[in-house]
Amino acid sequence: MVYPPIQTILLAEDNPDDCELLKGAWAESPVGDRFRLVHDGTELLDYLCRRGAFQSPETSPRPSVILLDLNMPRMTGAEVLMELKQDSGLACIPILVLTTSKSPKDIVQTSGLGVNGYMQKPNTYAGYLQIFTNLREHWAEILDRPLSGGGSEWGGNLAWC
């Protein structure tokens, strides 16, 4: 099977330190041509729906993949997922949760909303670099196997990091 290449990574993250670590790691080990950043769930929806500052496709291209933090102001990652999955034009964008949470509740909830992966934020810069290495190496698997289900019968991957 032929998979579309990664062109644009869109990070939805409110923590400035995590943003800087991820931007630096992407610059050192780029995946795709573009790395874009929004700071909360409302901005993410504005970006995807081309509202406000995100109207131009040249500066706000459709993402190949979204790296989504769960704990954001204004609109949480879970709330964003519920909105995205109701829009057939947006529901097909692969989403990888990147969060501090190890909560089984969060894992089950987001897998039920169709995310393609769930990763806990690393503690080191090397871990952030590994995110992009693993994204590159596991792209086909990410596209083929969204997380689904939950509980004891759940067979998806938690992460590639």
Largest sheet data: 5 strands, parallel
Question: Could you give the order of the helices and strands?
Answer: EHEHEHEHEHH
Unreliable segments of 5+ consecutive residues: 149-161
Structural class: alpha/beta
Strand order of the largest sheet: 2-1-3-4-5
CATH C-level category: Alpha Beta
Binned strand content: 5-15%
- Specify the number of helices: 6
Shape: globular
Distance between the termini: 24 Å
Radius of gyration: 15 Å
The whole-number mean of residue pLDDT values reads 86
CATH architecture heading: 3-Layer(aba) Sandwich
Give the name of the CATH superfamily: Response regulator
CATH topology: the name is Rossmann fold
Q: Please indicate the count of domains.
A: 1
Total strand count, please? 5
**Residues in helix, %:** 25-40%
Task: Name the features.
161 residues; Rossmann fold; 5-stranded parallel β-sheet; 6 helices; disordered C terminus
